Amino acid sequence: MASLETPVCDFGRPAPDFALPGTDGRIWTRDACAGERGLLVMFICNHCPYVKAVRERIVRDARDLMAIGIGCVAVMSNDTRDYPEDSFENMQRIAETLSFPFPYLLDDTQAVAKAYGAVCTPDFFGYNAALELQYRGRLDASRKETAPEDTARDLHAAMSQVAHTGKGPAEQIPSVGCSIKWKTA
Questions:
Q1: Disulfide engineering: 118 pairs with which of 87, 107, 123, 174, CB 3.0-4.6 Å?
Q2: How far is CA 12 from CA 4, 22, 40, in A?
Q3: What is the dihedral of CA 154, 160, 163, 164, to 10 degrees?
Q4: What's the whole-number mean pLDDT along residues 67-89?
Q5: pTM strictly above 0.70
Q6: How far is CA 68 from CA 57, 65, 102, 120, 126, in A?
């Protein structure tokens, strides 16, 4: 399992559109996921230890951000044939077990991950109300283990700033995680 770091934020880059099936049976688009003050697109999966270490924190922060007008959505783009733990059925189970307050979407063709430039799980893309990229950093200091409870909430702070000012922080610490499991031809 390769550990990768996300690239520096490409401020102002527009959020690519998508139409993907959710674990709730709906087809979700970018605009349906966006909130009044912005959008957080999270590339996650079920099997990655980096994601497992922060799933509860993702849910907590998403609830808080949704309350201030940031729409949130999680996308799973891994090859489910080689990584059956990431299957749609398992996505549904995880979404229900953890009470995801956001849509959890399957990117079976991996086209959405490629359009966003996602490289790892977790990979966070935070957009302002105009759907311009303002954050491409980590959730917090967690890695394969959950950071202490009192650790700084980097993603939450950045997206709160975006919600209130339309701009993300100039300094951002990259997210680290498992590589996206790309399908082989």
A1: 123
A2: 23, 27, 14
A3: -120
A4: 98
A5: yes
A6: 17, 5, 14, 27, 14
Instruction: Compute how many other C-beta atoms are within 10 angstroms of the C-beta atom of residue 12.
Output: 11
**Which positions ≥6 away from 34 have C-beta within 8 Å?**
15, 71, 127, 131
How many Å apart are CA 80 and CA 63, to the nearest integer? 28
Query: One-letter amino acid identity for 84?
Result: P
Q: What percent of the chain has pLDDT over 70?
A: 98
DSSP string covering 21-88: EBTTS-EEEHHHH--SSEEEEEE--SS-HHHHTTHHHHHHHHHHHHHTTEEEEEEE-S-TTT-GGGSH
Domains of the chain: 3-179 (3.40.30.10)
> Is residue 19 within a helix (H) or strand (E), and if so which, with residue range?
strand 19-21
What confidence score (pLDDT) does residue 67 get?
Answer: 98
The neighbouring-strand residues paired with 29 are 19
